[in-house]
Amino acid sequence: HRDLHKEYRRQRQMCIRDRNRTQPGLIRGLDEDFLLMQRASEPSDSGWRAFFFPMLSDEQLSQIQLFIHQDKNSSGKDKNSSRKTRFIVNLKLDNIGELQIDGRVNSVMVDLLVQTIKPLPLKLKKGMRDVFINTLERTEIDGNIVFKVRKTLDPLPINQLNGFSETSPSITDI
Predict the structure, then answer these.
(1) Where are the beta strands (DSSP E) in 12-158?
(2) Rounded CA Rg of the chain
(3) Which residues lie closer than 8 Å to 54 by C-beta, 6 or more apart?
(4) What is the pLDDT along the chain (174 residues), one digit of tens a residue?
(5) Which residues are CB-neighbours of 50 under 8 A, at least 6 positions away?
(6) DSSP-assigned letter for residue 59
(7) Quick one: which of 55, 102, 110 has its CA closest to 82?
(8) 86 — phi, psi (to 5°)?
């Protein structure tokens, strides 16, 4: 086990060194991407934050995008009101394509809108609904889950993040 880990690290270092020789802009571009991701995770003036997680699917690297918005108008101090949070999870899966979960949460309610471009298999929808309902039953929270197929998914709030610039494409987008 230890030898495999050592070999993995050695191979990774060789790969980075070789790529740095053949693609000198790659490391600089990745540094810029990490800086942008750090800025995006800090609360912006609009209230949106973003987190990006790598995902390996069929040997292809893709990304899970998580956007979170805390409602500034809900103080949460009054016992009858609670802070409202909106989140959007966006990912692309090989077998179903792009999937977007738009959620709204407070201390008493969770609403989820699951959007796709292609219809989800009935078994998958039932499984997601069952997990959602079983989770709610263990809490004192109510909720709804709705599935919609759309021609295009709602735009993500990327332009409302700290550090966003339309003029500088990411090296990982190239």
Answers:
(1) 48-57, 60-70, 85-93, 97-105, 109-116, 142-149
(2) 20
(3) 61, 62, 63, 64
(4) 455 556 656 666 666 666 555 555 655 655 555 666 666 666 667 778 888 887 776 667 778 888 999 877 655 555 445 679 999 999 988 888 899 999 999 989 999 999 999 999 999 999 999 999 999 999 989 999 999 999 999 888 887 776 655 544 444 444
(5) 37, 40, 41, 65, 66, 67, 68, 157, 158, 161
(6) T
(7) 110
(8) -115, 140
Q: Give me 8's structure tokens.
A: 């993995």
- What whole-number distance in Å separates Cα of residue 153 and Cα of residue 115? 7
What span, in angstroms and rounded, lies between the C-alpha atoms of 32 and 46?
A: 23
Length of the chain: 174
